[in-house]
Design brief:
Largest sheet: 4 strands, antiparallel
Strand order of the largest sheet: 1-8-3-6
Distance between the termini: 20 Å
Number of strands: 8
Number of helices: 2
Shape: elongated
Mean pLDDT: 83
Helix content: 25-40%
Strand content: 35-45%
Low-confidence stretches: none
Length: 173
């Protein structure tokens, strides 16, 4: 009987060691992530020539990625241009009269209120066109994931402690 208990104890210890090794490895190789967020996503139907001014807030220092897409419906636009600015400074601009299908611009910001100006000119028999504007923000500082790993370890330690207390009470009874 004692040999059977020893075998069960060794098996339990081996399982615990494997779990501890897996947990340690997952904490060591935990990825550093940058939480990208969409600040603005807009699709606009253009009739003739149309200008749109969009205001958005960057939460802090980071990178803005602006994608301006000429959606081929009912046909491509004759011209499409973009400008990103603060209240008093142009940060980035782009203009094309031959309408590419999509253009992406990236630039650094410090946080605060920004403006996106889009000018589009439709053409063809219907004098209609569509563009899509998407502005994404990626913070400079990575999102801290290791703290969540510590919290996971504390939770697993609590589960183990509760199980030991429960087994101790059953053995005493």
């Amino acid at each position: 009987m004692q040999e059977k208990d020893q075998h069960a104890h060794n098996l339990s210890l081996g399982i615990r060691l494997r779990w501890a090794l897996w947990l340690l490895l997952s904490l060591v190789v935990a990825p550093v992530t940058h939480a990208e967020s969409v600040l603005l996503n807009d699709t606009t139907l253009v009739s003739g020539s149309q200008s749109g001014v969009f205001s958005f807030q960057a939460p802090g220092p980071g990178t803005l990625s602006v994608t301006l897409t000429d959606i081929d419906w009912p046909q491509t636009l004759n011209s499409l241009s973009f400008m990103a600015s603060t209240g008093n400074q142009v940060l980035a601009s782009w203009s094309d009269t031959a309408s590419q299908s999509a253009v992406t611009l990236s630039f650094q910001v410090t946080g605060g209120r920004y403006f996106a100006d889009v000018l589009a000119t439709a053409g063809g028999a219907l004098d209609l066109g569509v563009y899509s504007l998407c502005i994404k923000f990626t913070p400079t500082a990575p999102v801290p994931l290791p703290e969540s790993g510590v919290l996971l370890l504390v939770g697993l330690g609590a589960v183990v402690a509760i199980r030991r207390l429960a087994h101790g009470k059953q053995a005493a009874a």
